[in-house]
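Run GNAT family N-acetyltransferase through structure prediction, thanks.
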Amino acid sequence: MNTIHIRHLDKQDAQVISQAFQEQGWYKPSELYERYWEEQQQGARITLIAELDGQFAGYVNVIWTSDYPSFQEQGIPEISDFNVLMKFRRRGIGSRLMDHAETVAMERSNTAGLGVGIYADYGNAQVLYALRGYVPDGRGVYKSDHYLQPGEETVIDDDVVLYLTKKLGQAQNIKL
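Sure, done. The structure for GNAT family N-acetyltransferase is below.
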């Protein structure tokens, strides 16, 4: 039937999520999701879980206080660590997760931000974000703790990020 359900992370999800990513060859330890749950309990983030017909399919976070200085200064919530299992892609799960994440972000801001890697592995995400209306924040490429400068050499890896923002519309009536 392909029913997509979005809900908040539960403490017992950690092992299920870790195992699902391990099955596709990605190492994502259960301790990561245990930390996400603890931070959710403390009010620092919301982790949204997507299930397809009752089976874990993906997740995304909304972090209320971003580590990225520009978002932090402006009070922009960051949508972060957005992942859909490969076997469940192209079924609308990512769009539903992003819809919910944007609705959550609207609780505190009329703008949402996110960072995206700049090499080909992030190509699908880059396209999705552009189609959803995200645009570069105009500050350039950021790596770990600084903006890259003309002539600066660096290794292109997961820490090299372009940050994007989107003005959010009216709140949608999405129930979790």
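The helical segments are 13-23, 30-41, 69-74, 93-105, 123-131.
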